[in-house]
Amino acid sequence: MRSRGNRSKEWKKGLFRVSQGGQMPYTHLLVAVAPTPESQVLIKKAVSIARPVNAKVSLITLATDPELYNQFAAPMMENLREVMQEETREFLNELARHADYPIERMTIACGELGHHIKDFCRSHRVDLVICGNHNHSLFSRATCSAKSIVGSCGVDVLLVSLEKG
């Protein structure tokens, strides 16, 4: 492995992946967040990995579709959808403000999260996805939504346990 001078010691502090040429630091982390307080835990974890190697950090979340909740209120759906989009944007902006680290991109996706994460990883050269796990029972772990992310995104995935309150 080539020496990187003084930076080598700092570089070793970060999380890295093993590749054919040796150890490589992660360069772009994608954090899958939900509008819950636990998302702060995921951001802190991402920043602790990214900061020592100056890696990029991006955020992705799912927008809630109001049609899933009330199919009888069709005339109000568009307004409700806009309000929910704005609340989701504000949630991401708030996470970014409290990250104490620059956030490269913030994305709001609709539909299957695993599909959007896979596309984002390819488009933006992400090499580590970080997501949370609220599932504490054996059955929940077996059907966890993170399972589809692990199986489809094509990059390393860090699944962070989010303890019950």
Quick tags:
single chain; 165 residues; alpha/beta; five-stranded parallel β-sheet; 7 strands; globular
N-to-C span: 44 Å
Structural class: alpha/beta
Low-confidence stretches: 1-12, 137-143
Strand order of the largest sheet: 5-4-3-6-7
User: At CATH's second level, what is the architecture?
Assistant: 3-Layer(aba) Sandwich
Query: Could you tell me the strand content as a percent range?
Result: 15-25%
- What is the overall shape? globular
Major sheet: 5 strands, parallel
Main location: cytoplasm
Pfam families: Usp
InterPro entries: Rossmann-like_a/b/a_fold, Universal_stress_UspA, UspA
Family: Belongs to the universal stress protein A family.
Could you explain how this protein is built, in words?
By secondary structure, this protein is α/β, with parallel strands linked by helices. It has one domain: Rossmann fold (3-Layer(aba) Sandwich), CATH 3.40.50.620. Helix content is 39%, strand content 22%. The chain has helices spanning 7-11, 39-50, 74-97, 113-124, 138-142, 146-152; strands spanning 16-19, 22-25, 28-32, 56-62, 106-109, 128-133, 156-161. A 5-stranded parallel sheet has the order 5-4-3-6-7, with helices on both faces. A two-stranded antiparallel ribbon has the order 1-2. It starts with 6 loop residues before the first helix and ends with a strand. This is Universal stress protein. InterPro entries: Rossmann-like_a/b/a_fold, Universal_stress_UspA, UspA. Residues 26-160 form the UspA domain. Required for resistance to DNA-damaging agents.
